[in-house]
Amino acid sequence: MTVHANESALVLFSGGQDSATCLAWALTHYKRVETMGFDYGQRHSVELSCRETLREQMASLKPEWKDRLGADHMLDLRSLGTLSDTALTREAEISMTESGLPNTFVPGRNLLFLTYAAALAYRRSIKHIVTGVCETDYSGYPDCRDDTIKALQVALNLGMEQRFVLHTPLMWINKAQTWSLTETLGGNALVELINTESHSCYKGDRDHHHAWGFGCGECPACDLRAEGWQQYRETTV
């Protein structure tokens, strides 16, 4: 895979499966990689506690990854949680709303994340920003769409007079293909690490362990992860 000589990347890194895969992707492609996380009062804040372990253990998988992994940045965005009346920021049952969107949708979340990431990238002289949003396996979130990301890239570049590139390595692949990409990037060791140490469950359940990792096994995030894992394993047996 091509390594961009002397170029840096900033990865939006939540501690979940998708962002961990994106971190591995960036460590494979860029000479220097920094990470950024957000505390927005999310119900599944346990994902934030997974970040440090994932970073450290991913860096240990390959000497070049250890050399390339740079600073981690954590931003307090709990004001977003106070504004949002959603199942990710409140103790509420996960359901569909009258608008047709699931009530796990946090309005403005990815737009804010990428805007703050661009502001940090501006200060750190980083051109490439990597996020794990995806149209194939997503819960109907409009801020995960390719059109949204492309439009935001234009707005950020115009508004900051920069040439940022927003990368979405998972945009057109499903969860099974995400696991396959993980294996391509870091072999079975990376698959096992992300399986056991990343967190995707919307309810923040780290008490129940399944073949596909920890989670409640009932929320949409667990359903996607479980189905993707099963499909992935069927192709690797």
TrEMBL record:
Q: Which co-factors does it depend on?
A: Zn(2+)
Keywords attached to this Swiss-Prot or TrEMBL record, sorted alphabetically, are:
ATP-binding, Ligase, Metal-binding, Nucleotide-binding, Queuosine biosynthesis, Zinc
Q: Keyword DNA-binding, does the record have it?
A: no
Tell me where the signal peptide lies.
none
Query: Biological process GO annotation list?
Result: tRNA queuosine(34) biosynthetic process
Q: Which reaction does it catalyse?
A: 7-carboxy-7-carbaguanine + NH4(+) + 2 ATP = 7-cyano-7-carbaguanine + 2 AMP + 2 diphosphate + 2 H(+)
Gene Ontology MF terms in the entry: ATP binding; ligase activity, forming carbon-nitrogen bonds; zinc ion binding
| EC number(s) on file | 6.3.4.20
* Keyword Mitochondrion among record annotations: no
Q: Cofactor: bound how, per the entry note?
A: Binds 1 zinc ion per subunit.
- Which is a Pfam family this sequence falls into? QueC
Q: Which residues bind Zn(2+)?
A: C201, C216, C219, C222
Which Gene3D superfamilies has this protein been placed in?
HUPs
Give the metabolic or biological pathway.
Purine metabolism; 7-cyano-7-deazaguanine biosynthesis
State the family it belongs to.
Belongs to the QueC family.
The name this protein goes by in its record:
7-cyano-7-deazaguanine synthase
The organism encoding this protein is: Neokomagataea tanensis
